[in-house]
Amino acid sequence: MLKIILFAEKKAILKGFYEYCNMNSEKGKTQLLESLENAEKLAKSGKLNRFLNKPFKYLFLQLISKLLYPIFQKGVKVTTRIPLIQTIEIILPAGADLYLLGFKSHDSEIRLAKFLIKNIKDEDTFLDIGAHFGYYAILCSSLTSSIIIAVEASEKTYGILQKNISFSNSNIETANFAASDKNGSVKFYDFPVKYNEYNTLNKPAPELQKLSPEMKTVQTYSLSSWLEEKSFKPNYIKIDVEGAEAKVIEGLTEFLKMNSPVLIIEYFPGKHADFYKFIWSKLVALNFQAFFIDNNGQAVLLKNPELHFKDYKHSSDNLVFKKTQ
């Protein structure tokens, strides 16, 4: 009898937790957008405002980034909270914006978060390629009760991703491999803690090679074959793999011929230019149109990426691709 009571209590707690974390109602989305906009304002304000907002956290971050990390070259694990959703673990000094603000604060990341909050519906499935600590997967898990899969190639980062998923009654699955153009294995550049968002399959630029990334061998899969094996058809696919996007798209081509997911791809116009021209031509040939995300989180049709980056002065951006037919 006691076991039954305890099980019922646990079930009720988990149900309450899910209802608290579920932001898919209009009210929930409004609250989440308000929290995001507050973080955006704080990110654009001066250092004094960020200090006054969370003085202890600000000073602790400065201690790590300016003193401890330069001396010991070791990251510090801390927990922080994505507002209204859940606590996550990150490693400082990487993830500094998540630690201080609860959200990724780069302009392109703010706009992408708005887009996802406004567009993800309860029945939507989501595939996050290059999930890192799980920020976007966790954000989307609050917007849908359907399956989310977060893929991360770095074994070190993957351990934190798994822990973050375990913090909640989550609909997220994880996988530890690198998406590429074929199944097999490949050399992977795994950067030190402070720069681990630069982890990539491609040989890093000279200025990044100075940061001494570790060379590791990782498993690779073509997403078309992997998705078929999983019997998983995501409605949204986010790809952030630091210059290896062309290989991911090549391996995803067969799936894209038969399906129409919304693609979100990090795009660097001046870096790996040939790769991005390939991506553009490949997706256009598959009847995808490109969109940029405006400041309100709306997808706006984009005909010329070079002009977009010139006009908006972005060094990088998250572009959305949707199939026209």
Key terms:
single chain; 325 residues; alpha/beta; Rossmann fold; eight-stranded mixed beta sheet; 13 helices; disordered N terminus
CATH class: Alpha Beta
Principal-axes geometry comes out as: globular
Count, helices: 13
Class per helix and strand makeup: alpha/beta
- Average pLDDT reading: 86
The CATH H-level superfamily is: Vaccinia Virus protein VP39
Strand content: 15-25%
Helix percentage: 40-55%
How many domain modules? 1
Cα end-to-end separation = 57 Å
Low-pLDDT stretches: 1-20
- In what order do the strands lie side by side in the largest sheet? 5-4-3-9-10-13-11-12
Based on DSSP secondary structure assignment, what is the total number of beta strands?
13
Helix and strand run:
HHHHEEHHEHEHEEEHEHEHEHEEHE
CATH-scheme architecture? 3-Layer(aba) Sandwich
Q: What Rg, in angstroms, do the CA atoms define?
A: 20 Å
CATH topology: Rossmann fold
- How is the biggest beta sheet arranged? 8 strands, mixed
What does this structure look like?
It is a single chain. An 8-stranded mixed β-sheet has the order 5-4-3-9-10-13-11-12, sandwiched between helices. The protein has a 3-stranded mixed β-sheet with strand order 6-8-7. Strands 1-2 form a two-stranded antiparallel ribbon. It has 325 residues and is an alpha/beta fold. The protein is 46% helix and 22% strand. It has helices at 2-21, 26-44, 47-53, 55-72, 96-101, 107-119, 135-141, 155-166, 206-209, 223-230, 245-258, 273-285, 305-312, and strands at 76-82, 86-92, 126-129, 148-151, 172-175, 178-180, 184-190, 214-222, 236-239, 262-267, 288-293, 299-302, 317-323. Helix 3 (47-53) packs across helix 4 and helix 11 runs parallel beside helix 12 (273-285). It has one domain (2-323): Rossmann fold, CATH 3.40.50.150. Residues 1-20 have low confidence and may be disordered.
